[in-house]
């Protein structure tokens, strides 16, 4: 697994994260079960892993806890099961980040893949016209930023390997599912072909021109470093991820944003 700077491991048998001394996290991971996400799949009766993903929100170094609380910043980690759900990969429910009290607007999220291979799918909105649609494929050590207000989901791109990631988000995080559920999911459904590769099927509930598949880019406008885990980047510069909590302070960077 990618060296995260926190030394956290995952207990495959019990679906729990294990924290080393001086690292805090919830005693038990929150589990998302198959029944919780079937409504967001193309096939609402598909079968797959019973525990789809395990979530631990609010983890970090004990010495950083006061600063994280003061900044309203939160670090979370998620482990996705391998396998598939019918013809579809294991994925999260599509959602938009709810309005945060910290800034009175939807907030951004910074993903860092720790293990396996992910696709971060995102679209500008969840109305009939979804705007630009992107599928960003990322491997261990790569970073993807989802901008405020965009509908998105996280996908395990592999049938054979568990996928784990860490992410910076706002402490009072919340999810708005209403528009996504009204459209029976996001604008494109990922599916496995006969060789186990991801292909995309358009959701007829939307009017979409095309899906752009791409690799992650560098985020120089946010001073993200490519060789240092994002938690350690925070430790070196505590203000680096303030844009997650206060995206309103850098509105120009979100205009015509490209993942």
Can you put this structure into words, describing what you see?
By secondary structure, this protein is mainly β. Helix content is about 10%, strand content about 35%. It has 6 helices and 20 strands. The protein has helices spanning about 35, 65-70, 180, 230-235, 240-245, 250-255, and strands spanning about 10, 15-20, 25, 30-35, 50-55, 60, 75-80, 85, 90, 95, 110-115, 115-125, 135-140, 145, 150-155, 165-170, 175, 190, 200, 210-215. Strands 4-5-7-16-11-14 form a 6-stranded antiparallel β-sheet. A 4-stranded mixed β-sheet has the order 15-12-13-20, with no helix packed on it. A hairpin with a 5-residue loop joins β18 (about 190) and β19 (about 200). The longest helix is centred in the N-terminal third of the chain and has 7 residues, at about 65-70. The two termini are about 25 Å apart.
Alpha carbon gyration radius? 17 Å
- Biggest sheet details: 6 strands, antiparallel
Query: How many helix segments?
Result: 6
Total number of β-strand segments? 20
Strand order of the largest sheet: 4-5-7-16-11-14
What distinguishing features does this structure have?
single chain, 259 residues, mainly beta, six-stranded antiparallel beta sheet, four-stranded mixed beta sheet, 20 strands
How are the elements arranged and paired?
Blueprint: E1 9-11, E2 16-18, E3 23-24, E4 30-33, H1 34-37, E5 51-57, E6 60-61, H2 65-71, E7 73-80, E8 84-85, E9 88-89, E10 96-97, E11 109-115, E12 117-123, E13 133-139, E14 143-146, E15 151-156, E16 163-170, E17 175-176, H3 178-182, E18 188-192, E19 198-202, E20 211-214, H4 230-236, H5 242-245, H6 251-254
Parallel strand pairs: 13-20
Antiparallel strand pairs: 1-2, 3-6, 4-5, 5-7, 7-16, 8-9, 10-17, 11-14, 11-16, 12-13, 12-15, 18-19
């Amino acid at each position: 697994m990618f060296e995260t700077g926190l030394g956290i491991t995952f207990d495959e048998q019990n679906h729990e994260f294990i924290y080393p001394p001086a690292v805090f996290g919830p005693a038990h991971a929150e589990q998302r079960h198959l029944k919780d996400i079937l409504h967001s799949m193309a096939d609402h009766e598909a079968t797959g892993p019973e525990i789809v993903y395990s979530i631990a929100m609010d983890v970090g170094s004990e010495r950083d806890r006061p600063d994280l609380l003061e900044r309203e910043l939160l670090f979370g980690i998620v482990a996705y099961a391998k396998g598939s759900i019918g013809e579809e990969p294991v994925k999260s429910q599509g959602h938009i980040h709810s309005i945060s009290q910290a800034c009175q607007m939807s907030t951004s999220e910074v993903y860092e893949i720790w293990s396996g291979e992910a696709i971060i799918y995102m679209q500008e909105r969840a109305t009939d016209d979804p705007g630009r649609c992107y599928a960003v494929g990322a491997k261990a050590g790569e970073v993807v930023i989802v901008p405020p207000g965009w509908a998105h989901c996280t996908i395990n791109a592999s049938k054979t390997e568990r996928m784990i990631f860490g992410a910076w988000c706002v402490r009072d995080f919340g999810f708005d599912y209403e528009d996504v559920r009204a459209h029976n999911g996001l604008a494109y459904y990922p599916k496995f072909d006969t060789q186990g590769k991801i292909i995309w099927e358009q959701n007829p509930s939307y009017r979409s021109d095309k899906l752009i598949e791409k690799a992650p880019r560098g985020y120089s406008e946010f001073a993200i470093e490519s060789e240092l885990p994002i938690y350690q980047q925070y430790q070196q510069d505590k203000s680096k991820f303030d844009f997650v909590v206060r995206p309103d302070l850098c509105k120009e960077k979100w205009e015509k944003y490209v993942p």
